[in-house]
Give the backbone structure.
Amino acid sequence: MTQSVIIKRSGRIALLVLNNPPVNALSAPLRSALFDALNDAGQDPEVAGVVLIGDGRCFCAGADVSEFRGDKADKISSGRDPGELMTLIDGFDKPVVAALHGTALGGGLELALSCHYRVAARSAQLGLPEINLGVLPGAGGTQRLPRLIGLALALDMMLTGNAVDVDAALHMGLVDEVLDGELSAGAVRFVEAVIAGGKPLPRIREREIKIDQAVTDFFTQARAAVTKRRSSKEAALSIIACVEAVLLLPFDDGLTFERAQFDACNASPEAAALQYGFFARRSATKIAGISAATAIRRIEQIAVVGGGTMGRGIAMACAAAGYQVSLVETSADRAQAAYEAIAAECERMRSSGRVSAEQAATMQNLIETRHALAEVAACDLVIEAVFEDMALKTAISRELGSLCKPGAIIASNTSTLDVNVLAQASGRPQDFVGMHFFSPAHIMRLLEVVRGDATTPDVLASVLAVARKLGKDPVVSGVCYGFIGNRMLEPLLRETEALLLEGATPAQIDRAMESFGMAMGPCRTMDLAGVDVVAKVVIECGKLGALPDDPHYRIVCRELYELGRHGQKTALGFYQYEGRKAVEDAEITGIIEALAARHGIARRADISEQEIVERCLLPLINEGFRILEEGIAYRESDIDVVWLSGYGFPASRGGPMFHARAAGISYVRERLLSYGQLLGNAYNYWTPAATLSDAIVQPA
């Protein structure tokens, strides 16, 4: 059995080493072991001070989130609960120093805040990200952090969930000293200096913040700002209330109030959804046939073929992760244009504060542009990112198969096309995989990894490793048109255009979907992606014979494409644009009315917000269940990760499959059948997936 706390001695100093791989999560066994070790150190006359330090890659990345829900939930408030441990440390009569490296997040930072001092290596990142799980710091964080660094900084850290680096932590007083060299030795020297100084031990609980009118206004403004949040609004309001309690309640009463607020937030549907999403992302890389023993191919140099918007974004994503990147274009002029566009984007990211000047320079310097496809020969991974055209992608796959070195992985950034066809064209299907990035590729977190029929386990494992290094949320998909995300998006867009023809406006549809929680409505999304791009996908699908025999299918986007209304880039699409601002356009109503008249579609004025949301989401969910039945996705939660990370589905609703479960499978089936009766079902748009007819269906 693993020893949760390793006890070491350095003279008079006891080092208590957290040992709960991989991230030293503050689980019940670790809390109990640490509590006992601290009691022993307190009673040992030969111990004059204590250092808490983490083994492995970090100090402590937070609580064991699995304890928040289900049968494990009672562990938080029973036995050696976090609050009991923190109180023990806070009241310790010998100096306790937290020595931080890697991450000190959530419960890890709360553990450090209960100590008398905090020292840190330069690698340290400190934060309280609990709001991302729909809860708040529940082990004294809301009461100690404001007392240490002030109301504004503390509230910002907790409401954003963002971590701060060691320089910022030192500046705000969150850490007492930054240590170079070996951390444990430096921490021991720090404790010995504290002991030699003989000063009373500083306890955060004893600090006070004075109340004045400015402070009162501060909380009023904070609450007003929270109303604009898309998720975790309840947790945000509770955090504000807890920080206000720092001023209004004695410390111990503040802890009691904090615990009650934590429990209330944790019991909310939103917290359940957010915590589900957290575990869904973890589960997505657990693939049958792949284990820690699966060989990983060495990938150091990456080539990206195609210097358009997507290719440039992929190159930047790879360079940001430290890979040497060759960006290949068809001519020297196009290669130079791609390089200049990358330089401009790096500068924009620097000026906006997204990256530092050093990071921007490093990213740009790691990308070299080329104009000969043969340049890919030395690369370990080659990602084709040319225009979404089967003939073009097939031809390039064939060339890459002959040019790439043995053992190199060949990937296609196709968003819809048959990866098996491209893999066979390469002549090396075992080395071939789909890597569907989402635009902008250097920002969006989702990466659909498309496993072809012949893709070997080591290739899949290697690409998943690359995805994690890129900071992506990878989801493995089987081969079908559109894979997981775009295949499910298609019925949503189909119903969006049907609703437009029947009388809804673009703004009406977008407002309804954004009120539901989507990051952006479908009409604005099509304008942003490019109506021409959207229409061409439909047209290409028609060439492949994959469209339903429906004369009204997606005719709106095709009409706008023919009229040159290509979206934001032409300042006209479903909206007209003033810069990036979408403005309702009376002309679009006339265009759609005329289109509906030509196709004999009756228009009506009684389309409700509920109808819009249901007609957009129900077919999408239904398609998700069909994808599961076909084995395209491994599990329901994988589908939810795709929609949470790539399509702006509200995190507070957990993803479309989780949302369907919350609504009830029988309800989803009933509403599909109801719309089938109301609208007709000649093309099986409203036929429930077979799984939805199984009353005992259980989530994957």
About this structure: Residues 485-631+664-693 form a domain with the N-(1-d-carboxylethyl)-l-norvaline Dehydrogenase; domain 2 fold (CATH 1.10.1040.50).
